[in-house]
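Long-time lurker, first post. I've been practising inverse folding by hand and with some scripts of my own, and I keep getting stuck on stretches where the structure tokens seem ambiguous. Below is the full token string for one chain I'm working on. Before anyone asks, I'm not after the true native sequence, just a reasonable design that respects the backbone. If someone could post their per-position residues I'd love to compare against what I wrote down in my notebook.
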């Protein structure tokens, strides 16, 4: 028995060594410049997760090396990082499924959401998931969610007004990010499976509690051993890696706890929906009802098994609430820092409101929200400037040549306009840098300036991404399925908040940092132990 074990262990070790050696001697990127590597074991990709504010390192490397450079992952594995528009268009749009997610990304997602669309490892599986999910995210479908979004934002406004009344004051400092996370959770619960979390009502919901600070509890400042451990995954067969995820590391234990709770709730709801469908109810618009109806079709290409169905819900909860809530938080913070722009935005909303009243309607129509130019500009600019997801990781499925819009200088001083990569090469689209390229956004790219979207000075020769030419929702076949959902939701919430409240910086002027916690979120310097936090002074508009 023990001989067998030894044999197994040594063959795994040999296989590992061979694979690793093949990688290490694989020098195709060695001539590309990039930051120094201090530790062979750790490489320098994870230095990003220790930078104080997201972008500190990214922008520095961009200054030094241009739009493409070489990084190193754990165990000497080279990574091509790029913010080059043409390279990104090639990788994300033109190559279809030829750049897939890395093993590490997939296995992490597997542990966080289960076998969901975000996990879907192959073209076959992903295109099936996406085809089934797409109808739930079509423009007409999402339009029907607007009243629900407005109901939630109205509830949020009411809560703040009650709070002001209760304190007998016309202004208060509030942790706006926490309130927005609750609103976004209520919204995704209703939209995804017609479920009331009651997060804004402060009900003691178990799922709500699980999501509080999930990212910063688990992903902030990854320990070194974890970096090496996950670095090994690249060299192992995927099936083995899928077993490894059962190791109780900090982040997975935290995510697993959340997932267990979410899955239990989802399972009950899937059963309930299937039951309702049997009884002929075909009207529900929530995502889960759409999936259950698709599953009832004859076409096997339109079916999800029960596990996949439940996983989609965890995926939507994960991808669809803190992202939007954080983006709106950053938007309000920028409004607080730019009071003149904030006032323009408020005037725009108030003007539209008078049209609504004159018409005798109760609330804004979708077209009215979409026609608010300052509102649209503020959203685009915040998505660009405070992109919540800052890096992506992809792996070339076969040998390829990546074209560049901006030539780069190699170690030998020559300029190259394309980068040949071999199958297995990891490439990392750098969203943070792409969103700040002066060649696209103008010389003031490092300034939050919504007016740039109104002046139409943005260079859109190379079309990229899902919305406003920013990369914040990723791009291509695996781009964010929820981008339009998120935009409509943000419109609804921001218009309501700005119509009802003024936002300003708290008197002690807290320093806000953009922490790298899997997703980028706000914390107050010196108060990091409080988790994600963005305090703003909120004053009722009278
Ligand atoms: C401001 C808000 C949001 C941002 C910045 C954002 C960003 C992203 C990004 C960058 C990706 C690609 C991830 C990757 O390639 O590894 C993605 C994928 C995804 N997002 Fe979003 N997202 C947002 C809101 C939402 C919402 C509201 C939903 C759902 C209602 C959602 C659902 C998804 C799903 C399901 C995927 C996976 C798509 C696929 O693999 O086919 N997201 N999102
Ligand atoms: C993906 O790679 C294969 C093999 O090299 C190639 O035939 C195919 O055209 C590529 N697909 C796209 C969309 O570029
Ligand atoms: C989907 O359909 C399959 C059979 O076609 C069925 O076994 C499964 O329970 C269905 N799942 C749901 C959640 O309706
Ligand atoms: C769905 C899944 O794989 N969950 C696992 C994630 O990791 C923890 C421990 O780290 C396991 O207990 C879970 O089963």
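-- Answer (accepted) --
I ran through it position by position. Result:
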């Amino acid at each position: 028995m023990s001989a067998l074990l030894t044999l197994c262990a040594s063959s795994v070790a040999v296989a590992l060594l061979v694979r690793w050696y093949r990688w290490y001697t694989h020098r195709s990127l060695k001539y590309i410049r990039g930051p120094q590597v201090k530790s062979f074991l750790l490489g320098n990709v994870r230095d990003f997760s220790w930078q104080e504010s997201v972008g500190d390192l990214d922008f520095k490397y961009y200054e030094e090396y241009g739009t493409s450079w070489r990084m190193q992952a754990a165990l000497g594995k080279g990574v091509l990082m790029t913010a080059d528009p043409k390279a990104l268009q090639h990788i994300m749009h033109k190559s279809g499924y030829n750049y897939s997610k890395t093993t590490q990304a997939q296995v992490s997602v597997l542990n966080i959401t289960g076998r969901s669309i975000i996990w879907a490892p192959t073209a076959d599986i992903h295109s099936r998931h996406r085809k089934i999910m797409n109808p739930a995210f079509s423009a007409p479908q999402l339009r029907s969610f607007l009243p629900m979004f407005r109901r939630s934002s109205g509830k949020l406004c009411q809560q703040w007004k009650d709070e002001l009344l209760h304190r007998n004051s016309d202004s208060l400092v509030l942790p706006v990010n926490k309130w927005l996370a609750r609103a976004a959770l209520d919204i995704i619960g209703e939209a995804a499976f017609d479920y009331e979390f009651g997060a804004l009502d402060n009900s003691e919901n178990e799922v709500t509690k699980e999501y509080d600070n999930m990212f910063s509890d688990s992903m902030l400042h990854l320990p070194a051993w974890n970096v090496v451990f996950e670095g090994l995954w690249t060299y192992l067969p995927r099936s083995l890696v899928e077993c490894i995820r059962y190791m109780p590391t900090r982040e997975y234990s935290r995510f697993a706890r959340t997932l267990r709770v979410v899955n239990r709730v989802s399972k009950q709801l899937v059963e309930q929906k299937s039951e309702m469908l049997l009884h002929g109810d075909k009207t529900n618009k929530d995502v889960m009802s759409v999936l259950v109806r698709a599953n009832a079709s004859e076409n096997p290409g339109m079916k999800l098994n029960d596990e996949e169905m439940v996983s989609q819900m965890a995926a939507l909860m994960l991808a669809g609430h803190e992202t939007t809530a954080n983006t709106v938080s950053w938007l309000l913070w920028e409004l607080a820092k730019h009071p003149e722009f904030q006032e323009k935005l408020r005037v725009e909303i108030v003007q539209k409101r008078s049209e609504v009243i004159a018409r005798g309607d109760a609330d804004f129509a979708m077209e009215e929200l979409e026609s608010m130019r300052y509102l649209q500009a503020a959203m685009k600019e915040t998505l660009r400037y405070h992109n919540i997801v800052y890096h992506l990781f992809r792996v070339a499925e076969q040998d390829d040549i990546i074209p560049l819009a901006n030539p780069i200088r190699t170690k030998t001083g020559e300029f190259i306009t394309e980068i040949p990569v071999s199958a297995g090469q990891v490439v990392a689209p750098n969203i943070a840098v792409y969103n700040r390229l002066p060649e696209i956004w103008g010389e003031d790219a490092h300034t939050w300036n919504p007016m740039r979207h109104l002046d139409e000075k943005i260079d859109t020769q190379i079309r990229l991404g899902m919305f406003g030419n920013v990369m914040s929702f990723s791009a291509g076949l695996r781009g964010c399925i929820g981008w339009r959902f998120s935009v409509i939701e943000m419109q609804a919430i921001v218009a309501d908040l700005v119509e009802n409240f003024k936002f300003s910086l708290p008197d002690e002027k807290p320093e806000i940092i953009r922490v790298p916690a899997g997703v980028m979120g706000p914390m107050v310097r010196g108060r990091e132990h409080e988790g994600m936090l963005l305090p703003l002074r909120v004053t009722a508009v009278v």
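A couple of notes from the structure itself: The chain has a mean pLDDT of 88. The longest strand covers residues 400-409. Happy to go over any region you disagree with.
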